[in-house]
Amino acid sequence: xxxxxxxxxxxxxxxxPGQLAMLVLGLALATALWSxxxxxxxxxxxxxxxxxxxxxxxxxxxLVRADGRPVPLADYIALRRAGYLVSPVISGELRAxxxxxRLLGIDPLTAPPEANTPTLQGEDFNLAAFFTAPGxxxxxxxxxxxxxxxxxPPIRTTESFPxxxxxxxxxxxxxxxxQSDPSYLLIWLDQPAHLPPLSTATNLQRVAPEQRADPxxxxxxxxxxxxxxxxxxxxxxxxxxxxxxxxxxxxxRATIRTLRALGLPLRSLxxxxxxxxxxxxxxxxxxxxxxxxxxxxxxxxxxxxxxxxLYGADLPGTLSFxxxxxxxxxxxxxxxxxxxxxxxxxxxxxxxxxxPALPQAWHQASTRQMRRQAGVALALLSLSGTLALWGDSLIxxxxxxxxxxxxxxLLLPITLSTLLRLxxxxxxxxxxxxxxxxxxQQLPGLSLALMALLLALxxxxxxxxxxxxxxxxxxxxxxxxxxxxxxxxxQTEAEAARxxxxxxPRTEAVLPVVWADTTLAGRPGAVYGQADxxxxxxxxxxxxxxxxxxxxxxxxxxxLINEQLARFAGLSPGDSLTITPGVTLEILGxxxxxxxxxxxxxxxxxxxxxxxxxxxxxxxxxxxxxTATAALASALRDDFGLPADAVINQTQIKRFSLEIFEQTFxxxxxxNLLTLGVAGFALLTxxxxxxxxRLPQLAPVxxxxxxxxxLARFELIRSLILAxxxxxxxxxxxxxxxxxxxxxxxxxxxxxxxxxxxxxxxxGRLLALALLAACVAAALPALRLARISPSRLLKVFAHEA
Amino acid sequence: MLLQIDGLTKAYGPVAxxxxxxxxxxxxxxxxxxxxxxxxxxxxxHLVGALDAPDDGSIMLDGVEITGGDDAARxxxxxxxxxxxFQQFNLIPSLxxxxxxxxxxxxAHRHDPARDAxxxxxLGLSDLMSRYPEELSGGQQQRVAIxxxxxxxxxxxxxDEPTGNLDEATGDAVLDLLLELVTSTGAALMMVTHSTRxxxxxxxxxxLSRGQLAPLGSG
Lengths: 801, 219
Prior knowledge:
The structure holds two protein chains of two kinds. Helix content of chain A is 60%, strand content 12%. Chain A contains 26 helices and 18 strands. Chain B is of the alpha/beta class. Chain B has a single domain (3-215), classed as P-loop containing nucleotide triphosphate hydrolases (Rossmann fold, 3-Layer(aba) Sandwich), CATH 3.40.50.300. In chain B, the strands form two sheets. A six-stranded mixed β-sheet of chain B has the order 6-7-8-3-9-10, sandwiched between helices. The longest helix of chain B has 18 residues, at 168-185. Chain B is globular, with a radius of gyration of 17 Å. The chains are: A alpha+beta, B alpha/beta. The A-B interface holds A 429-431, 433-434, 437-438, 440-441, 696-697, 699-710, 790-791, 793-794, 796-801 and B 12, 15, 17, 37-43, 46, 49, 51-53, 71-72, 75-80, 84, 86-88, 90-95, 99, 102-104, 106-108, 148, 160.
């Protein structure tokens, strides 16, 4: 019985292949965007897990120097002699052009068992080659295949190692990195019982795994962002599916009625419906997974670039296939299809056997329904505002965004209806009146597609306003911060001294750039020493400051901190900050420091020299007359003998910084565009769905003397009116979203707040894009109407031939 | 002569629906068209109403050949010269009763609010002008459709079972009005009906059978 019902239901799709394609494509697109995002997240999280597990970083404590410099070998030897179980590690990065390789040099003989190093055993493993020159590098096949610095020792590939990194013997790492002292010491979990606590035996700082910057934590907000985008795209895709299923239900009313009348039990009918939906969903889900994998593979290099640019997290630029991911995506497709088909199933269950067989608009929302919907919308918008203003976590921030989206979408039909009614009063001529009245009447049938468009447009406005504000602020900030004309780097302290002597008579000022890695308010960070110079006083904007902050800084009476540190630790000017054990200073001011994930503090160069006597500056910012910059840069390379990449001008740094910036928002832009594309498709399906049902409304107008071509033009105009009005409503929603992203999400996720700017030109471009999408979506139904044969229109009137 | 049809043929695929139909209709005259289902009555109405094109033959309306024009010309003809009353009313659901009545007259640039008011009053619609079609009964909707067809003072009124959805008394009243307006304005009425009682009230009666016309009774 179920089989008979199922084959009858399927016969509908044979007669309406376009509708079938719409349903499958809608579901496949929804699955593709969702599963694509999930594939990226899964890949990234696996990479973080690999990185975290490397050398037991997720479990083992370390000993480090408070100033971030390498641990003296003598300290290590002293601890070993005292009987403590510690193991040295040299870590650093090799760079040559675009090629980068992170090196981890270990001592396999003293490494803790929890360090989880790749196996150094096996018949074909040459242990001697690992220990002796030229050494051996262990890395993944993908890393080995990528661009690598030249002159590396032989490579052996291994699995489960972070991308862009290699493991080697500590001696090899020391030679390649030119560093003899360990970067840090790994502490075994179990220490000899008879020894006093390690803290009493050394001045080195013990750092627990949770105190270190964890890429998985740092990037959580980014992945949450991606997930939110994926969910949005999935929801937009479900609008398409809902429209397709709704249309199929309306067109099969007569079939359903007949099946019921002929004795098919409701349960069998619903089972057949469920099976039909499941079969179609499985097929669409498989197509979606293939598409999703392709999308993820295409976006992966961009995501890797973004994460490297934003957080310094290394990700492989390629994607691996995970069956669990594919199954999860299929489950999501089935759940989404069930959700989209629930209404049609419910209506089938409630439909009386003698229900009229004529198709009706399936979403004839009454004014009362729309008012009820508006009430819920207003409640959601209020909740959104409350969460945005008083919420204090990332999750609440996303909750505010979700409530804003849902509230705005629910408010759309009644708002459009009101606007159209107002416009109707000012309309001139019978056709203008009819067009607006008819458009208003089409709203219930199109509202889901228009909601999808509203969401896509709002997301686009919000994200582009956020990115635009970020870009404008960032560029302005770069202009302020990068005042010096040239930046030079010496190889050694001796060369630095010679360089200063060479530069002093040739420049207006030589300003050292010197820093020490340290822990600030329990967070990894850096303290910079800065000269008292108008370059900084006149150009560095302070977000908040005590009076005469720069004067107090110059006399060594305080410290400036970046916004991230201030927000993270809840610090304000006037509070105190310990920059290294024994040195606590008053906070004089807070400066913006976009793009830097770490805590940062600035003290005067004299105080820096006194606090960190071992660190001498090797980088310098040079103030030169703009006309003399090029000549000095040439002289530094040709006469003084600095390598080309040791002399960088301001323009180069700005370009590099902006490149990182653009890379950072590459993925956001791509997802934005894809979501808008899906919304355009939703509008197309909505219009196609309505096209057949609208003939009884259009035929009389045609009969009264309006040509089919003119009616088709009206269809286009109607679509444009709806898209334009939806855009007008999307503007405030998008701007509210931008404000939430800048003032709530960004602050929670990255620790800085940006001033919001509005970009009318961007909005104009988006409006043009929305109108184009509406035009393209309406083109097919309009073309079909323009070419429809009179006999089809006459069928509306004629009941006999 | 207002309407002159000569040798009209129309086929849908292999099925010949009209086979050489010819007739004439003068100003102020009314014609009842009867015939069994599938005889081609509606097809003939559609061709005369410039809603469809014949395979062969000619239709002259008020001295203008309407079979040769393009879509725009046929649309203009419908707008200006023809009033259509459909069996299923076919009102525009998004417009109010008043807007529906005025719609075609405004399209034809012949809108006369006084005439609208007169028609509404005669058809018992005065109290319903601000309502929408879905808020009306079938009979009320049919009266709105008739008012719309008459509002722009067309030369020819084509009515397909205009009283099919009305009770006998209302149907008679509507037909009275149609006939009165035809007589007073010099327009012509061509009406499809299954009712011999109603057909008997019109000036002429023709019976369509298997695509060909035959006189029914006098005329």
